[in-house]
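Might you be able to review the protein record set out just below?
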Amino acid sequence: MSIVRFNPYIPADRVNRDSGWTPAADVWETPEAYHIDLDIPSVRADAVAVTVEERVLVMSGERARPERAEGERSHRLERRYGRFNRRFALPEDANPDSVEAKVVNGVLEVRIAKREENKPRRVEVIAA
């Protein structure tokens, strides 16, 4: 299983041999946190798991194939079903204890706060 690192110059690994499909991900950073949006349409929130294992963020879940009535015939099936699994190595300044996740309109939104000691801060300069 490959691990994708937060690096804007290396594209995300789109090949996942251990899964039925690989959802697209957007990864970006603000001064306070790292953010990952994972496209998971038709996946219920209770079918998703987000964990941190040794500074690796793991997002997994399953999209169930819809039930078909007896006698229905499929003419074209382009959507992928089954399990998915995405892994991202957390940067050193990420706080693995601060991970928050929610599913909004078919997107898994994950936020990882940065460690307080690593955040830039302004130092007040006073005249002596």
Summary: The chain has one domain: 4-67+79-118.
